[in-house]
Amino acid sequence: MAEKFDVIVIGSGPGGYVAAIKAAQLGLKTACVEKWTNDAGKAVLGGTCLNIGCIPSKALLESSHKLEDAKHRFDVHGINVGEVSVDLGKMMERKNGIVKNLTTGIAGLFKSNGVTSIQGFGKLLSNKQVEVTDAKGNSTVYEAGNVVLATGSKPIEIPPAPIGEHIVDSEGALSFDEVPKKLGVIGAGVIGLELGSVWSRLGSEVVVLEALDTFLAGVDQQLAKDALKQFTKQGLDIRLRARVTATEVSRGKVKVTYTDSKGEQEIKVDKLIVAVGRGPVTENLLSADSNVNLDERGFIYADDNCMTNVPGVYAIGDCVRGPMLAHKASEEGIMVAERIAGQKAQVNYDTIPWVIYTHPEIAWVGKTEEQLKASGEPYKVGTFPFAANGRAMAADATMGLVKIIAHEKTDRIVGVHIIGPQASEMIAQAVIAMEFGSSAEDLALTVFAHPTLSEAVHEAALAVDGHAIHIAQKKKRPTA
């Protein structure tokens, strides 16, 4: 007789492992299935984010940023360090150590919360049964009261640039054994810019090829234009309207052919990173009689409560609609576990923050000015530059600004956009404010510590109505 669980989660990424832990905390007998194994054949928990995504990329971004500071910024502070060199092996070792600590930490959390970890490839059968096939091909069927599909996503591959030794995806780009002299990146999105930044700081000449004619099209364009200027200054060669049509590997070099407004062009690079987006991992996940619906792009159909069309089967994270963000997946995991336990939890999709961990960082929540213009919704804007912020001056980090957009009639904050130092941390202030339905005046009346970078948020809120203290302002006029 098949073992039965109240909840079986397929996938142990930021959505899956969080859902499993929360379900167990709520008193539900819970199992989590994971197919990923290490060289020793043991289950690797944490999914893409912890193993080959968010965490290792941030480790390298931090290391490379410290190198950049040592090379070019320490002298401003009166610190002389002489010649600075890179030990790439040690840098990678540090990154791998962080990943190992976090992934083994999840195993410990599973144990302490009573989550059963099942190793193998999970497949949903009919009647909420889950078949798990191990590395040797042996299959076991489990029964579940509820199933949570949290299988995540994988890099999209494109025919003109097949993945291999010299052409890599985001995973391969985190494990180079030497710094490429010249590096090509296809895609100027979040992943492409972050990885391009890492290797540029470490010494690569980086060319980024972006097919779109707008840089960071989904970002508020006031910030996007500022970012493009800053990245160009840093040495990233970002080419828009550049559509890659072919690649050829010869003698350790990659010839990349692309078309732009001037016709056909080509560059030669030592390594090429393909970072054109990610797609859902749903292949072979569902048996024909599971009756769970997929859309035309392979995403699992799920409503705003992450329920599929089959009662008792939920889907969360990158394999469903919405932004492919680890924190979105985690919050969906919490919500689903609570709903299974009989609670009425929800996720507020209007207040999910986005971050690009470049330097300067870019972070935002809510609507952009372009979206508001297109909708015709009346709005007003306040901005404040870090160049006028005392803490930013002390930190030698004065690039960028804070932008707050509020509804013209109600003053309710509808969007906050930050480019600058610690933007990833400061955006949380905006998320909290919007979660509680704050007005720009609410933030303007809040006391912020001095001197802090966060004072820029305060001043931007004051600026919404033309009341900023530390910059000169023209009288505000309504914008629509």
CATH topology of the largest domain: FAD/NAD(P)-binding domain
Rough outline: globular
Low-confidence stretches: none
Strand content: 15-25%
Highest-level CATH class of the largest domain: Alpha Beta
Q: Major sheet, described briefly?
A: 7 strands, mixed
Estimated helix fraction: 25-40%
Can you count the beta strands? 22
Measured between the Cα atoms of the first and last residue, the distance is 65 Å
Q: Could you tell me the radius of gyration in angstroms?
A: 24 Å
The CATH architecture of the largest domain would be 3-Layer(bba) Sandwich
Subcellular location: Cytoplasm
Pfam family, one: Pyr_redox_2
Keywords: Cytoplasm, Disulfide bond, FAD, Flavoprotein, NAD, Oxidoreductase, Redox-active center
EC number: 1.8.1.4
Describe this structure as you would to a colleague.
The chain has twelve helices and 22 strands. The chain has 480 residues and is α/β, with parallel strands linked by helices. The chain folds into three domains: 4-155 and 279-347, 3-Layer(bba) Sandwich (FAD/NAD(P)-binding domain), CATH 3.50.50; 167-276, FAD/NAD(P)-binding domain (3-Layer(bba) Sandwich), CATH 3.50.50; 351-463, 2-Layer Sandwich (Enolase-like, domain 1). The strands form five sheets. Strands 1, 2, 3, 4, 5, 6 and 17 form a seven-stranded mixed beta sheet that branches. A five-stranded parallel beta sheet has the order 8-15-9-10-11. The chain has a five-stranded antiparallel beta sheet with strand order 18-19-22-21-20, sandwiched between helices. α1 (16-25) packs parallel to α4, α3 (54-72) runs antiparallel to α4 and α3 (54-72) crosses α5. Its main location: cytoplasm. This is Dihydrolipoyl dehydrogenase. Belongs to the class-I pyridine nucleotide-disulfide oxidoreductase family. It is an enzyme of class 1 (oxidoreductase).
